[in-house]
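A protein record in our archive is deliberately plain, so that people and models can read it alike. The tokens are whole numbers drawn from a learned vocabulary of local backbone shapes. For reference, a complete record is included directly beneath this paragraph.
>
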Amino acid sequence: MTTTLPLRTFGLAAHRLHRSTADGGLARWAAASRSVLQELQLGVAAVGGSADAIEQLALAEHFPRLMRLPYGREGGVMRMVSRIAGGVHTEQELAGAIYLLDPLDPSSLYPEAQALKRQCISHGKPLLLTVAAAAEWVAVEAALQAGVSLRQRPPAMVPLIGQQSLALIAHDALKSAMVDFAHRHFDLLSQTQERFATGTTGGRLNEMAWSRGWPRERPWVQPLRSGPLGGDAQIAELVLDQRCDKVLFFEDVHVARQHEADIQLLERAVCTKSFEAACYHTPAMADAWARAWA
């Protein structure tokens, strides 16, 4: 059954690496997602440099509703952050953000970039930091709107569910939410090639799987160290080795995190593999992703 959703707008920013050439991340995402962008009638509010690139690379026709934000140096990303939180004018509210990030670009560490992530998670809105994530996510939303499975129309640039490998990570306040998510989507997640999890999350996920009849002689997820003791870095290496292409990371942004550097390391590893890897940061994103692939 098709569900008609109100028209929405995503913010868009892309570092120079992804917007400077015709075969860069921005152009490849726009080409891969053109049909679903049209299907969703998704608006895009592009920060100045990305808006320039869309014009210079003749990509404007890929976007059914294209708007322009100021350049980053003039507060473009800052305005994205405000509008993720609701904005000054309600009609300018953003439903999510696409920020194609180059981990070697110094602006990836600017406060506005960190605030964008925090506000997206706080308000339960999608944040898409890689080309693969952006391509898959718009396909997820289109599939859910049309009432079809991504198995019937797999997104460009993304492997089928049986070829994906997952990392399942959750901060303390969200560990139960991760176990609940895995329980509800157990059959789907069990079809993936490999599954990894950090710390006590891994132990709880394996106990859940064994209680459902998974063979006790083999773990359902491969357990790694806890995040503070290096588990996030272990996941990062798996991503760099292309043994893991999907990170479902239930982050708690409301508590102080002593291992923030490890979290950023993992995120930057995912962004290093922008065309292959994706990270989804909230239970709502993970649930939508799983429902779309079911």
Notes: The chain has two domains: 9-144, 159-293. Residues 18 and 25 are 4 Å apart (CA to CA). Residues 159-293 form a domain with the Rossmann fold fold (CATH 3.40.50.1380). The radius of gyration is 18 Å.
